[in-house]
């Protein structure tokens, strides 16, 4: 029950932080659906470490709801206080540095992922699975087929640096990647 408490506290916290945001897709799906799905993907593949599930629920909170050093520091302190160091570390590991350009951030993800902690690597794979599924089911407005294919290929590169911790989830990524690619080509 203690874990369930922590998980629902994280769910409420993330829902609050993302409350005015929607996904990029034409469907304007509430943003919170995404971290819920990332957490559920991990649970579906038998991941039951509560710090991992909590970090998955919070994985986009710093990147998407805090701007500038001051806000990031304040939010990090709050996450540390509420959810502990393991959760904060994993969340910060999967947070892009927004002072870099989108292209640089993409390059950094490929370069840095092999050095991430196990928790952060698992979140990366689940995140990319969900993002690819969204690109097929609820594509971002104005994305050409080429742009979608480029995203899938980049996601595969990132995931190649995160493999080896959960073989079923790795295999599921490959399956989602190939079925999605087939739909695009
Ligand atoms: Zn995400």
Task: Kindly summarize this structure in a few lines.
The protein is mainly α and 185 residues long. Helices cover 71% and strands 0% of the residues. Helix 3 crosses helix 6 (85-93), helix 8 packs antiparallel against helix 9 (145-160) and helix 9 (145-160) runs antiparallel to helix 10.
| CATH class group | Mainly Alpha
Count the DSSP helices.
10
The level of helicity is: over 70%
Strand content: under 5%
> What is the 3D shape?
globular
Question: How many separate structural domains?
Answer: 1
- Gap between N and C termini, in Å? 47 Å
Largest sheet: none
User: What ligand molecules are bound, each kind once?
Assistant: zinc ion
Low-confidence stretches are none
Order of helices and strands: HHHHHHHHHH
CATH topology: Hypothetical protein af1432
Q: How many whole angstroms does the radius of gyration measure?
A: 16 Å
Q: Average the pLDDT over all residues and give the rounded result.
A: 96
What does this structure look like?
The chain contains ten helices and no strands. It is mainly alpha-helical and 185 residues long. The chain has one domain: Hypothetical protein af1432 (Orthogonal Bundle), CATH 1.10.3210. The radius of gyration is 16 Å and the shape is globular. It binds zinc ion. Zinc ion binds next to helix 2.
């Amino acid at each position: 029950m203690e874990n369930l408490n922590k998980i629902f506290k994280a769910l409420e916290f993330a829902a609050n932080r993302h409350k005015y945001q929607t996904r990029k897709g034409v469907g304007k799906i509430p943003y919170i659906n995404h971290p819920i799905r990332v957490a559920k993907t991990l649970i579906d593949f038998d991941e039951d470490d509560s710090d991992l599930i909590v970090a998955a629920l919070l994985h986009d909170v710093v990147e998407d709801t805090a701007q500038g050093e001051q806000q990031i520091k304040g939010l990090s302190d709050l996450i540390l206080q509420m959810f502990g160091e393991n959760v904060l570390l994993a969340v910060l590991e999967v947070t892009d540095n927004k002072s870099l350009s989108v292209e640089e951030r993409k390059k950094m993800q490929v370069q840095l992922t092999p050095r991430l902690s196990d928790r952060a690597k698992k979140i990366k794979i689940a995140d990319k699975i969900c993002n690819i599924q969204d690109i097929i089911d609820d594509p971002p407005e104005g994305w050409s087929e080429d742009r979608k294919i480029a995203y899938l290929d980049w996601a595969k590169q990132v995931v190649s640096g995160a493999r080896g911790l959960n073989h079923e989830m790795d295999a599921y990524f490959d399956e989602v990647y190939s079925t999605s690619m087939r739909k695009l080509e």
